[in-house]
Design brief:
By secondary structure, the chain is mostly helical. It is built from 14 helices and no strands.
Length: 333
């Protein structure tokens, strides 16, 4: 009971993870990207219905057995590694924008962020969730400023100038970047409020915020998409809604904070599962998990199908967990 969290805290934790992924999204984006990602969120909500029903019936992950927990653990660790990889790639533009710093600068910065993640994740799920609300509020201010400025000052023709790669391709891309579903599967079980309302609110909020951020990026960078590595990062740097304070300075803070919480929530979920699957490991679980995630992140840059495999495990865990539960309990949907 000590780790029980509220609806708003869960949504803050998971949305931070989702928006950080959008920050690190590379390549071209278009209106089709926003549509594909948002509709993908609604499909994920439909896929999560059995899980929602399981938790509503007061089922737990322990009731599903170790196989389901191992699937989730694998998905979470791989996704944590992908987050580290995204951080190192996008961080070269946001955190270390100087060529002379070189690769070691990125490694040192990533290591420092990992240390902060260890501190936050080790404080417990409830404490992490409480502080995540503050981080989410900070992010909302930044994203709101960028979105409003993009709508007011950008050329609407940028939406048409941004090349579209097709709705279904963007939909599949959204699913390959949905590795956070494994962490959601674990964290939803800690919610003390109305489970169905919490899940519905999260996925709808994810769809709306994702669409708003992506459309803002298209409005700002639609005309220069061919030379933009990370369109959302560039959109934040090019947008200056305040006459005194540059929005990219605020974005640097938000980017770093979101990176910390994105990795921390995955580490906390994995630590819980390690305790369930390997109860003999009593100490340094969080440290071990973060080291494994960092190693996965270091090698995943060359792993072409890494996101796809991670998404399969995460989405598979979301579906497999309630199926195993209902088979074991012989509960009819």
């Amino acid at each position: 009971m000590s780790n029980k969290i509220t609806t708003f805290q869960l949504c803050s934790l998971m949305l931070i993870n989702d928006i950080f992924v959008i920050f690190c999204l590379g390549g071209r984006i278009s209106a089709a990207t926003a549509a594909g990602f948002s509709i993908g969120c609604l499909i994920q909500l439909i896929a999560a219905v059995p899980l929602i029903y399981m938790y509503k019936k007061r089922g737990t992950l322990s009731d599903c057995g170790k196989i389901a927990e191992i699937i989730l653990l694998g998905g979470i660790i791989l996704w944590g590694g992908m987050l580290f990889s995204m951080l190192m790639k996008a961080g070269t533009l946001v955190l270390i924008p100087f060529e002379e710093v070189g690769k070691w600068g990125g490694i040192i910065t990533t290591a420092l962020i990992a240390v902060v993640c260890l501190y936050i994740a080790s404080s417990g799920i409830k404490a992490m969730a409480r502080s995540a609300v503050i981080a989410a509020a900070l992010g909302a201010v930044c994203l709101g400023a960028v979105t409003v400025s993009a709508v007011i000052h950008s050329d609407m023709g940028n939406i048409e100038s941004a090349d579209s790669t097709g709705f279904f391709r963007e939909l599949s891309k959204g699913f390959t970047l949905s590795g956070g579903l494994a962490g959601f599967t674990v964290m939803l079980g800690f919610v003390k409020d109305n489970i169905p309302r919490t899940a519905i609110g999260y996925f709808i909020g994810k769809a709306v915020i994702t669409a708003a951020v992506l459309i803002s990026g298209v409005l700002v960078c639609g005309g220069i998409m061919e030379i933009t590595d990370f369109p959302i990062v560039w959109a934040a740097q090019l947008t200056q809604p305040f006459s005194v304070q540059r929005i990219d300075s605020l974005f640097l803070i938000v980017f770093t904070v979101f990176a910390v919480y994105s990795i921390s929530v995955q580490a906390s979920a994995a630590e819980y599962l390690v305790g369930e699957v390997f109860p003999f490991i009593r100490r340094y679980r969080c440290s071990i998990i973060l080291v494994i995630m960092a190693v996965v992140g270091a090698v995943s840059g060359q792993w072409i199908y890494g996101n796809v495999f991670t998404a399969i495990l995460s989405f598979g865990g979301l579906i497999t967990v309630p199926i195993i539960y209902f088979i074991k309990r012989k509960i009819s949907l």
